[in-house]
Amino acid sequence: MAGETINSKSSTVLETLREDTTFEKFLEKDFDAKGYANNVIQSRAIGECLEKLADGVRLLDKELHSQVVTRHEDLLQQATGIETLEGVLQMMTSRITSLQLSIERIHQQISDPYEKIRTRTSQLRRLQTTCDLLRRVIRISYLTKRLESQLKGGVKETTKAAQSLNELGYLMEGVDLSGIEVLDKDIDWIKNARKEVTSQAQNMLTQGMETQNQTQVATALQVFHNLGSLQQTVETYVQSLREDLKSTIANTLDIQNLMYAQNTNSAPGRAAIPAPGNTAMWRATLWTGMEKLMDKIYSCCGKVHHVLKVLSKKRDPVTHVCFMQEILKENKKSGILTFWESITITLREEFTGAAQKSPFLKQAFEGEYPKLLRLYNELWTRLQQFVNTGNPSNVYTGGVADVVYGLFHLYQDTHTSPEDFLKNSLSGFENAYLSRSLSRLFDPINLVFPAGAQAPPSRDEVAGIVKTIASELNVANVDASLSVSVSRNVEKTIQLYTAKSEQLLVTSADAYQVEMDISGAQQKNSVIVNMLYEMHQATTKILGNISFPKHAKEAISIALKDLLALIENAVEPLLLSMQKRMEEIVYKIHSEDFSNVQLSVNISDTPEAPCSSYINELQDFITHVNRNVLSLYNCGDFLVNRLNFMAARVLHVFVRHVSLLRNLGEGGKLRLAADMAQVRGSFSLRKGGILRGV
């Protein structure tokens, strides 16, 4: 309650001061005493202002006195706490001073031993460095003398000399040995000795690769391994083979080199196009160079394969680590394992670039692509020996390998064939050749069937088409995949010929009439059918004479089936007309009278039994068809089955209608028997004579 009373009094005093215009200014935050005094002086109301201010001071003194009286106990407690705090601060000050004195004493006790330890440690480090340097000097001197004796031992001591050089390199690595008089001459001599050993090993490696001497190659690799440069040496050697092969490819495809080979007096800068009449000579030179290029590729692949074999088998005699593991330690797909892929990429790039630069090379490779492909196939056949990495004749027998690496090792567990890499480099030329091949196959057909022509092809024209087909198939027979591709072109060719022939077929009524004389439409259709059949027979004969892949023959066989289907569709309406007419003649059997008791003539007076009129009509029709219709067709083998089916159908109709006859007399029976004999004879004659003559 007292606190609330005091607060209410304080608020009352503040309200009183705030309501007074004189004291209101003193409550403002930005009150300026000097400004207020100047205003009072200028207003000349100094006395009143002083009196007013005195009243305000008295009011505030009274309020302060009231506050002190009311809160005197709290104020006394705070004064006592201040005295206690001063005592605590004095105590802490004395303790801090004592701590500083203790630290000074400890510092004096530690600093001297520390300086001594630091000095002795520095001395020890220098002694150790000196001792290490002395040990290195002693060891270098010893190894230098040993190296001198090893170098005098010749090639047999090369591996040991390389090991000594490797240790010397380790001793001199990261250490400044300059200024040591004992070693100045030795260091220069060691550098020269390293160059000499490296040169000897390089010569040994080169000689071993040329002669395929596995012992020399293994010794050279051991030297480089001892020198610590095995991986670098192998990569450098493989890279040199790549560059050499790339240079050979570029020189082989350089049109200027071909020109110089033909004319040594040719000056630089002449046109890179052979003169008319010299194309054959240029191409002969080109293909001779291509054969040499294939030999070069085989040689390089053989060298890489040989190195891989030795690396797979050779182990360090000290650590027993396989050299191939050392090569693949940092790079699982080392350049030596991707050598084959890099060759195929180089071939594709160089061949494509050369063809773009020279129209002659482009025309040669596209026009004679089978010849180029044959060279590739022969190369791949020679490279087959590198596929079997387990061949004892191709491995180094100086150790045991966990994995025997070969030229095509990366492709053993993949679906990608190394042969595909090789042939893919010629994909551009293959597509161009197939396009040209299709054009060559279509050209004779387009000449035989010009736009708007209605005349059927002649035998010579069909023979020309077949000759073109045989030529393309024979040329493509150098490669199975090319044979399949060309066979698809042949399939398209046969389909085109079939479609063109189908457009010429006449389907009007006069093409299938069989009672009147032969019409022009029938003659035209017969020629078309004969030429279709001749095309089929000639193509079938070609397939029988050429050893072709199964897929290639299947593609052509499908087109030949379509051709036979067209022949069947062309002759089927005619055969149906013949069958219908013969059935109509057989129906006339019901117009005959077979109720006679005896024959109208005496059989003894007539050597041949009499027959009915419809039989004579049937025989005349068969003779007409045989002489005038079927004789037009030269596809007897194709028509045999269909004619036999037609004959069987007519005989079936005849027997069925004979069985329907009633009121047969003895004479009628004998005449009917004579009719049957004549029908049988007619169709037997047809089977034995007419069908053979078709």
Automatic annotation (TrEMBL):
Compartments (UniProt record): Golgi apparatus membrane
Q: Which GO terms describe its biological process?
A: intra-Golgi vesicle-mediated transport
Protein's name in the database: Conserved oligomeric Golgi complex subunit 5
Its predominant location is: Golgi
Q: Domain Conserved oligomeric Golgi complex subunit 5 helical spans what residues?
A: 177-380
Which range is the signal sequence, renumbered to this chain?
A: none
Q: Which UniProt keywords apply?
A: Golgi apparatus, Membrane
User: Transmembrane region positions?
Assistant: none
Q: What membrane topology is given? A: Peripheral membrane protein
Query: What domain of life does the UniProt record list for this protein's source?
Result: Eukaryota
Domain Conserved oligomeric Golgi complex subunit 5 N-terminal spans what residues?
24-147
Provide GO CC annotations from the record. Golgi membrane; Golgi transport complex
User: Which InterPro entries did the record assign?
Assistant: Cog5 (IPR019465), COG5_helical (IPR048485), COG5_N (IPR049176)
